[in-house]
Write a structure and sequence with these properties.
MetI-like fold, membrane, about 290 residues, mainly alpha, Putative aldouronate transport system permease protein, about 5% strand, about 70% helix
Length: about 290
């Protein structure tokens, strides 16, 4: 029986490794394929001869993208939205989650029911647009921040994490004369680094990838985020189903190379940031999800 279990366990390990390898290949393939086409010479791209490795080495697509002022403006706007939006979202999520994590909060269960209700039902696009317009947020940076300021789902995860912090720590803080504010700032938040980084990453990725709100609320092109700029560049290049586009920076660039170059430009920053907080990412999600 022991030998059979060892064999089955070894087979299970091999199957897991194989499955993970297939998943890694499936996730890496699109990025490698886009990078190969973006860096290849025009002729092999037009002939469809590029797969996972560049055929030749040509940086005209990336040069054309970065020489386009729209991309630089989009990067600047997106960084502003990400920094401002993530900071405000984390701040208000903390201010909402910490009181709700206290069992002695008056009407705490009622507030939680109202928060959960918003996860099931929403007012819809038109009422939301009318509210944003009535507050004068159209064509302002706050239109990208305030409408989606707090996610009920992330707030509940953060609340659950706060509930898992030992009560004895807070009681010791009260004995030392700390107020509720100081307990949150000096005891709770320093212990909540995993969940703060995890939720912060979720908020940052959501804001970085958000182009729908910009299409609805922003008419001024100087306020458009990077994703909208990339969308506009790709759509201009696709006019008339042309194979070659000279619409970016005055350069003649193969459309496929242009599309994949701008997609990579918009995706890589988030992929670069993720490894630095990966260890906190897994811990924060698990702790905030499995506790009652």
């Amino acid at each position: 029986m022991v030998k059979n279990r060892s064999a089955l366990s070894l087979l299970f390990d091999y199957a897991n490794v194989l499955l993970m390898a297939l998943m890694i290949c499936a996730m890496l393939f699109p990025f490698l394929h886009m990078a190969a086409i973006a860096l290849s010479d025009p002729e092999p791209v037009i002939a469809g001869e590029v797969t996972l490795w560049p055929n030749g080495l040509n940086f005209d697509a990336f040069s054309a993208v970065f020489n386009d002022n729209r991309v630089l403006v989009g990067y600047k706007n997106t960084l502003i939205y990400v920094v401002l939006g993530t900071t405000c979202s984390l701040l208000f999520s903390i201010l909402g989650a910490y009181p709700l994590s206290r069992r002695n909060l008056v009407f705490g269960k009622t507030f939680m029911m109202l928060i959960v209700f918003t996860m099931l039902f929403s007012g819809g696009l038109i009422p939301t647009y009318l509210v944003v317009r009535s507050y004068g947020l159209l064509d302002t940076i706050w239109a990208m921040v305030i409408p989606g300021l707090v996610s009920p789902y992330y707030l509940i995860i953060m609340r659950t994490f706060f509930q898992g912090i030992p009560r004895e720590l807070e009681e010791s803080g009260k004995i030392d004369g700390l107020s509720d504010w100081m307990i949150m700032l000096r005891i709770v938040l320093p212990l909540s680094k995993p969940v703060l980084l995890t939720i912060g990453l979720f908020y940052a990725v959501g804001i970085w990838s958000n182009f729908f709100s910009a299409l609805i609320y922003l008419r001024n092109e100087d306020l458009h985020p990077l994703q909208v700029m990339i969308r506009n560049i790709v759509m201009i290049g696709q006019v008339g189903d042309m194979t070659v586009s000279n619409s970016v920076g005055g350069r003649t660039v193969v459309l496929e190379s242009l599309k994949y170059a701008v997609i990579l430009v918009g995706t890589l920053p988030i992929l670069i940031v993720y490894p630095f907080i990966q260890k906190h990412f897994v811990q924060g999600v698990m702790i905030g999800s499995v506790k009652g």
